[in-house]
Amino acid sequence: MTRQIAVRLPDDIVDFIDQAVADGRARSRAAVVSKAVERERRRQVAARDVEILTGSAPDDDDLDGLARYAGKVPLELD
Question: In this model, does residue 60 exceed pLDDT 60?
Answer without folding.
Answer: no
